């Protein structure tokens, strides 16, 4: 459930705030207009997931403005996807940012502890699929999920995938990434259904 709204409702239930006070908090400032962007401040309350910055096409200065707006309004962990190394360097001059070049992802703040249900397995057919897999893995982790990475387990050497049957059997979600022929998705899907 949406944590912020649930906390507001609990506060009303426990007499800590009135219904009108809670309603005012929900209505107040759903976004902040910074000129070039309208930063969504209520996305987490409405959708369960906070705003993410899509870095492609934005300048470092624009992203810094969005980051500062998010931080000023209580967002502790910020994910920036499709972030170039040059923009990451510029942002680092103003904000503490961890940059993951392979995934083109920047993360500001502490990663949350996993609070999702179960594990997400991210499997790649080959080594060249790792950048896409890392983007998915880091995004899932920022969203509070536990991730198991299975890299280079393509079906050309099926024994590599079969050595991870426990991970496959215990996964709540499986993301299969395979470039050229894409056979991994069919095989891992078949294994997951059988197990």
From TrEMBL:
Single annotated GO MF: hydrolase activity
GO terms for biological process, alphabetical: 'de novo' IMP biosynthetic process
Classification via InterPro entries: P2CMN_synthase_LarB, PurE_dom
Source species, domain of life: Bacteria
Identification of the protein by name: Uncharacterized protein
């Amino acid at each position: 459930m949406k944590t912020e709204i649930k906390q507001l409702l609990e506060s009303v239930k426990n007499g800590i705030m009135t219904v009108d006070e809670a309603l005012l908090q929900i209505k107040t400032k759903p976004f902040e207009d910074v000129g070039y962007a309208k930063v969504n401040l209520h996305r987490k309350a409405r959708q369960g997931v906070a705003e993410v910055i899509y870095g492609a096409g934005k300048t470092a200065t624009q992203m810094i403005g969005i980051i500062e707006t998010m931080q000023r309004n209580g967002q502790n962990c910020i994910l920036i996807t499709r972030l170039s190394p040059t923009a990451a360097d510029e942002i680092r001059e103003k904000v503490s940012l961890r940059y993951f070049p392979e995934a083109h992802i920047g993360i500001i703040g502490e990663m949350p502890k996993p609070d999702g249900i179960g594990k997400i397995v991210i499997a790649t057919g080959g080594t060249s699929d790792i950048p896409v897999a890392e983007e998915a893995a880091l995004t899932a982790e920022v969203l509070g999920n536990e991730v198991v990475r299975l890299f280079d387990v393509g079906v050309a050497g099926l024994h590599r995938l079969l050595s991870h049957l426990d991970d496959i059997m215990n996964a709540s979600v499986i993301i299969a990434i395979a470039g050229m022929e894409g056979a991994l998705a069919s095989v891992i899907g078949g294994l997951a259904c059988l197990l």
